[in-house]
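Renewal narrative, Specific Aim 1. Our central claim is that a sequence can be written position by position from structural information alone. The example that follows is taken directly from our test logs and has not been curated for this report. It begins with the structure tokens describing the chain, in the order in which they were read.
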């Protein structure tokens, strides 16, 4: 009998059911198209067949598309949202050598957005976003924001090691071109750090003080995976990805299907069609 108590054990059709409390609280690697045992609360067991043919590009970075954590399936969509969030405003807090938790924080203006993230990652989160106030001594006033955080888990520990250096500084992963492949990841990143400038019909994505090498890897990933060619400029000492008009149109075509209605203020307006319009003053229909 092949042991399944290890965290790196692969679940397969020939594996025996995993008793709750043994491997139920550990990660189980999964392969597309096989049936894996997912322990559920209440000492019940259920089998879940993973979708055949789903891309497994995350494997090359040590992150697999699906994982089971405490009986909960962490989906490919959730990982894509997490990747976009980590490129944007998300922060990972280490909770030991191998685990981390995700912290989300957004202004009151983006209340709907943080609740959208919470609903998308609900099975991984500790609680709903809470409304808080913070006093800014520089401006002499308080402002309202919302915050929530995830449970601590090994998956986020992996992302912590990919997206942060040993000093805790956020960085671009070496294999970013294997991580940033989903339009959903790109859309979440843009919703976090992007800005649309309607007068010139151009877009920007604001970056931390990444090194030139890190920015080069990032722009290469955008070119390779999305055929996007932004320019790197500086604003107030920080690097910014600048998308000229043609590149902005390409960017918007990629991300708009993934942007919720309440975040459309960050995207270009949809073109207004005049097809079938009647001459001014006409009453005929």
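The sequence written for that structure reads:
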């Amino acid at each position: 009998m092949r042991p399944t108590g290890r965290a790196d054990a692969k679940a397969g059709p020939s594996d025996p059911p995993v008793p709750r409390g043994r491997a139920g609280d550990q990660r189980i690697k999964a392969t597309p198209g096989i049936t894996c045992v997912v322990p559920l609360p209440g000492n019940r067991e259920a089998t879940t067949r993973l979708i055949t043919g789903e891309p497994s590009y995350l494997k090359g970075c040590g992150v697999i598309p699906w994982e089971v954590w405490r009986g909960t399936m962490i989906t490919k969509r959730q990982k894509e949202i997490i990747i976009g969030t980590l490129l944007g405003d998300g922060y990972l807090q280490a909770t030991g050598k191998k685990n981390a938790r995700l912290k989300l924080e957004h202004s009151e203006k983006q209340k709907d957005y943080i609740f959208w993230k919470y609903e998308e990652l609900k099975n991984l989160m500790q609680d709903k976003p809470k409304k808080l106030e913070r006093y800014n001594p520089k401006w002499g006033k308080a402002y309202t924001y919302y915050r929530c955080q995830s449970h601590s888990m090994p998956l986020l520990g992996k992302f912590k090691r990919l997206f942060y250096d040993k000093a805790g500084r956020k960085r671009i992963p070496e294999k970013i071109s294997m991580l940033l492949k989903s339009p959903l990841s790109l859309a979440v990143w843009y919703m976090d750090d992007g800005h649309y400038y309607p007068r010139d019909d151009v877009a920007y994505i604001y970056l931390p003080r990444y090194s030139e090498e890190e920015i080069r890897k990032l722009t290469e990933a955008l070119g390779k995976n999305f055929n996007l060619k932004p320019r790197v400029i500086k604003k107030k000492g920080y690097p910014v990805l600048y998308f000229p008009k043609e590149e902005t149109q390409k960017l918007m075509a990629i991300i708009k299907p993934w942007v919720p209605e309440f975040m459309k203020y960050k995207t270009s307006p949809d073109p207004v069609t005049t097809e079938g319009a009647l001459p001014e003053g006409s009453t005929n229909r």
